[in-house]
Write a structure and sequence with these properties.
InterPro entries: GntR_C, TF_FadR/GntR_C, Tscrpt_reg_HTH_GntR, WH-like_DNA-bd_sf, WH_DNA-bd_sf. Keywords: DNA-binding, Transcription, Transcription regulation. This is FCD domain-containing protein. The chain is mainly α. Helices cover 66% and strands 4% of the residues. It has eleven helices and three strands; from the N terminus they run ααβααββααααααα. The chain has a three-stranded antiparallel β-sheet with strand order 1-3-2. Mean pLDDT is 76; it is low at 1-28 and 101-114.
């Protein structure tokens, strides 16, 4: 990551500082996900109100040193999560989104404490939404979507630790969800992923290597079914996916 000179505190300076202070925590995420997380935290911790400006793609690119494509992807992630609003035109830019009912629901899921019952509820909700999200992805995927899903699969395959594998898994599912045109389903689903992403399932009592290979293969099959647009195959893989004893 290129070096950045110290900047004056202000609306546009904070993302870089937040990113630098939390780089270790997000080290296993893609750079776009790191930046999205830093911007989301900046909005939350700063108490910014709906409609307040965050900057522009160009100003964020200049501050962070990231490529335009990375900044653009981070902004897309936050737009899909209902955090940012993109306004075109002369006075346009990036603004804090109005917190409607869908965003409130998503943030409620993200703010739930890590009690076992809350985690179980999030898993149950995610499992029920999985087939809707994945079938929609099979219907609406583009060549670019498929290419990016395959990239996420690559990250899943080479993840060095189980924790890294779990985070790469959630990143893959979030990218699948981005294809789904159902905004409410997508927002709630991503909300459950965000909550589950704060937990780290343990598999000490299982054959970790074998279990990880099985879970990886299920995701390979899922991406292949989505890429081919084969809805029956998607439903079959989702059934296997939701059975975590497989």
């Amino acid at each position: 990551m290129p070096e950045r000179s110290p900047r004056k505190q202000g609306v546009h300076a904070a993302p870089s500082k937040v990113f630098e202070s939390r780089a270790g925590a997000f080290a296993q995420r893609t750079r776009a996900e790191q930046l999205a997380a830093a911007l989301d935290e900046r909005i939350r911790s700063g108490g910014l109100a709906p409609g307040e400006p965050i900057g522009t793609l160009e100003s964020l690119r200049a501050e962070t040193g990231f490529a335009y494509s990375t900044v653009s992807e981070a902004v897309r992630l936050l737009r899909d999560r209902g955090v940012l609003e993109i306004r075109p035109g002369r006075n346009g830019g990036l603004f804090v989104a109005d917190i409607g009912p869908v965003v409130r629901m998503r943030r409620t899921l993200l703010d739930v404490t890590d009690e076992p019952s809350a985690i179980a509820d999030a898993i149950e909700l995610r499992d029920h939404l999985e087939v809707l999200i994945d079938v929609a992805a099979a219907r609406h995927r583009t060549a670019r979507d498929v290419a990016e899903l395959e990239e996420r699969l690559g990250a899943l395959e080479i993840a060095p630790t189980w924790d890294d594998f779990v985070h790469a898994n959630w990143a893959l599912h979030e990218r699948i969800a981005a294809i789904c045109p159902n905004e409410m389903a997508r927002a709630v689903y991503v909300g459950t992923l965000g909550h589950l992403n704060t937990t780290s399932p343990r598999i000490e009592d299982r054959d970790a290597d074998s279990y990880r290979r099985q879970r990886y293969q299920i995701h390979v099959d899922l991406v292949a079914a989505i890429a081919s647009g084969d809805e029956p195959a998607v439903r079959e893989v989702v059934t296997r996916h939701n059975d975590t004893t497989v």
